[in-house]
Amino acid sequence: MIEVDSTLRALIDAAPVGMVMLDPDGQPRYANHRWVAMTGFSPERQGTTEWTECIDLDGRDDFVADLELSLSNRTALRGRLRLSTRVGTIRWVDLTTTPLPAANGEPGGLLLGISDITDEVDEARRAHELTRVLEASPDLVAILDPLGRSLVWANDAMRRHLGGNDVSGKVLLDHLDGWSQARLATTALPEVRTSGTWSGELRLTRLTGGTVPMSALLVAHRDPEGAVDSISMVGRDLTDLHAAQQRVEASEIRLAALVEHASDLVLVVSEAGDIVYASPAVAHVLGREAVELEGVPVVDLVHPEDHGDLAERTTGVLGTPGMSPAFEARVAHAGGGWRYMEIVATNLLGNPAVDGIVVNARDVTERVEVAAELEERAFHDELTG
After folding, report:
1. What is the pLDDT of residues 38-48, one digit of tens each?
2. pTM of the full structure
3. Which domains does the chain have, with CATH numbers?
């Protein structure tokens, strides 16, 4: 058995890493407290348990074979292992071996040192997973230098947009339109350096011409001293959203134009029965200004003899989402008299954009009066033969 002299003990004790002396047979003879803390094994209390049992089972056999070869050939060994502690946790370590010189004609064994790199491995794994997720993201993702000037890394979506796999060193401003260049330089970068984040819209230029509007988020990442180490940028392409908004706006403009210039009257009535909107057609149909009708109960405009029918129709409309059958009612004209109106009500109370009953009313007074006149003539013709 190899004796461990005081000088070697002092060297092992002072080592900044976990260290153990192994004899030529690979058995531990002396270890420092860092080794014991990391592995849970002490040469003095080893008993019948093999110290290599602290090595994770997946890599244990390969390590033992490499260690035996290192002892036999008196060569240094470098590698990375997973240790399984006594409480079941896994720790990653970097290991090195240093052959010891022979003494008194006997092989010298070796010193085995281990450094815990679990945090570094976990960080690298998280970074790899994050990179994998960002690479697969349809959003435009990039890492910028501390000044926010040049690109350091970009995901696949951003690289495709920039037109090449190698984006390192490309200047972000070169890929923004003039408005966005000014906004980035005067607003976004100063704010992200001060507050840590900035969000807003920027426009990237297309290689084929035109721009890509994007909702951008910039985040400053700082080193332990608080200095900006890098700036990340995540951008979401707003092209489809802008196109949809433009279609909606165009549709709303067309609808508003149709309503504003329609000859039929359009009302929006609350669930309580009050008018919340009246189209301009109310002026030539009923001789009133639209603003005069806001807040007026519909029933106040309807002929008293039609109130019963209106109440019955209202119950049906409120209980049936969507369009209800047409009916007629007499509505007061500002100049006096009554206008016969053909009314179609559509229950859109469930639509948050409307939250009311849409009433389309068409003046059919002339038709009703002509029909009444014809009926009266027919009646008189029968009497007079």
Report:
1. 888 888 765 54
2. 0.47
3. 6-122 (3.30.450.20), 138-242 (3.30.450.20), 262-370 (3.30.450.20)
